[in-house]
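Usage

Read records sequentially. Each one opens with the input sequence:
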Amino acid sequence: MTGPALPYVIVAIVLLTGLAQKVYGLLKRRDDPSRRAVCVCLAGLFAATVAQLATPAIDAATGMALGEAVSDAGAMTAACAGRLFMIRIRYSAPIARERSRRCYAGLAVALSAAALLFLAFPPDPDSGRDPVYFAVYIGYVAFTLCVVGRICLDYSLLTGDAWLRTGLWVLGAGTLAGLGFLAVKAVQLTAELFGAPPLLDAPAQVLELVTESLLLLGVILPGWGGRLGVAVRWLADHRTYHVLRPLWLALYDAGPEFALMPPDRSRRWHRDIGFLLYRQVIEIRDGQLALRPYADPGISGRARDEGRRAGLSPEAARATGEAAGIAAGIAAKAAGLPPNPDPPTAAGDGGRDLGTELAWLCEVSRAFAGSPIVAAAAATNPSRIGRYTV
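and closes with the structure output:
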């Protein structure tokens, strides 16, 4: 092969990783034709990439330009398998079986024609020109990519699975990149037939690598996307949990009776973060209710107004007011002040559901831990507030 080998090595490693994962899944469901098609597609792309890397060694061992031919056969097989996969997920079983037979027949004809042209017009490994059989490769793969791209577009409009739809869009982008690669190679082959020197090698290599990368990503996204979404949600829940810690810890220290479990004051990662976060929200609200007899609505109102004058957004000013009320209540209880016999009826603002409630309490907790307005509201004992940080 010509050009740098490192990109092909990287693509080969990624392809092998994806293939291993898909083969592992196939071992659990050996009777799933769509899984078999994915494995064959990735295996074909891997074989094509490795053959590209090993082309000089293969040519030297065989005495003929066989390395590129092996790579092209792998790419044609991968294209056929990709088409089979799309057929299996798009059509019912009887229709899919009939169309699959046509795919196999088309691949057999294309590979046979390419082999005959290879033997009739053997390529010269030293010329750098594309072989004659390459016309068959271009025509077959271009037709297959057009079919795959059309199915991707059709099915992406029907599926309700977000990750599958994204994978189909990426596959569609891969087919467009592949068609661009084939167009460049067709121009190159035509120019060489008229005696022009080899050209456009660099754009062709870039498009080839982009095509393989997009096709691989499109194949693995539906399977890995759900796990990726769970991981992202887990990380986001941990971030939210630690943002709420200052507020929760302050309320716990003021009155631990509302807490289901004692606090874990470490910063370790939790497997059951969803449960802990849910409990945290409930216990923060319970702690606020327990502080109602010590709350002063006037302090919350003044802190809210001061926040507006300081240039805070309306939401941030409201969060500052609620945090100031909590801080003042904690300070009043710690100072031993008598409770209010007629406390306010509401603990504070809130969200319509768990998501909006979490977002709101995060705003309150940030204000509680970092706002000077809140610290001033707890002036009777400010050290109790300042030691709680996000």
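Summary fields computed downstream for this record:
- Confidence is low (pLDDT under 50) at residues 380-390.
- Residues 41 and 82 are 6 Å apart (CA to CA).
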